[in-house]
Write a structure and sequence with these properties.
Layout: E1 7-13, H1 18-28, E2 34-41, H2 47-54, E3 59-61, H3 70-83, E4 88-91, H4 100-105, E5 110-114, H5 126-133, E6 137-144, E7 154-161, H6 168-191, E8 195-198, E9 201-204
Parallel strand pairs: 1-2, 1-4, 2-3, 4-5
Antiparallel strand pairs: 5-6, 6-7, 8-9
Helix pairs in contact: 1-6
The chain binds glycinamide ribonucleotide (GAR).
Glycinamide ribonucleotide is lined by residues 15-19, 48, 92-93, 95, 113-115, 126, 176, 179.
Length: 206
């Protein structure tokens, strides 16, 4: 018997939703003791919404056009997440920086996936930044979100090689394959109660 009810996940998206799809699939396969209770997109046309609807998951389009500042946008996001009793927020390709309003509402309970080995190449176009710098290896990072840009405590990272003839697209595809495994593993560790945060460090129980 699980010690608690399945974790209630709220997933925030902006785009295609391949990470969302893997999370849905692994939950449906019974590999993660959690339920996605809502998917929120800041883009009306995001394909991630179609993926969620195909699995009967409630979707909310929450665009920023009606909000004068980032704090009031985030306050509304918090109120949506609270209305679904979310206890872990997953940023799966959500292309907005969160304010303290969100971060303080879910302390150490917002996870983001970033397509680089942080602290290298934060922000936008991380894969192109890695190519431009000439690194031999890049990868992905799953981290808790704080109010900086991709600066929160690191949960897991995976490394992929950078090939000489890589383009932003080919490197992104290789990184995304790693993302799909790494994100699942991080979520599983969280819902299994194996993660503890001490300052900047994330301790993982074996
Ligand atoms: C992923 O590669 C993720 O790392 C990136 O957006 C993509 C979303 O793909 N996120 C960021 O760059 C956040 N700064 P998906 O919609 O297919 O999951």
């Amino acid at each position: 018997m699980p010690e608690h009810e399945p974790y209630r996940l709220g997933v925030l998206v902006s785009g295609s939703g391949t990470n969302l799809q893997v999370i849905i699939d692994r939950i449906e396969a019974g590999e993660i003791s959690a339920e996605i209770v809502c998917v929120i997109s800041n883009k009306a046309g995001a394909y991630a919404l179609t993926r969620a609807q195909a699995h009967g998951i409630p979707v909310i389009v929450h665009e920023n056009i009606n909000f004068s500042d980032r704090q009031s946008y985030d306050a509304e996001t918090v109120s949506i997440l609270r209305s679904y009793k979310v206890d872990l927020v997953i940023l799966a390709g959500f292309m907005r920086i969160l304010t303290d309003v969100m971060v303080n509402a879910f302390p150490h309970a917002i996870m983001n996936i970033h397509p680089a080995l942080l602290p290298s190449f934060p922000g936008l176009h991380a894969q192109q930044q890695a190519l431009d710098y000439g690194v031999r290896y890049s990868g992905c990072t799953v981290h808790f979100v704080d109010s900086g840009t991709d600066t929160g405590p690191i949960i897991l990272q995976s490394v992929v090689p950078v090939e000489q003839n890589d383009t932003e697209e080919t490197l992104s595809t290789r990184i995304q394959r790693a993302e799909h495994k790494t994100f699942i593993e991080a979520i599983r560790l969280f819902v299994d109660g194996k993660i503890q945060v001490k300052g900047r460090k994330v301790l993982i129980a074996s």
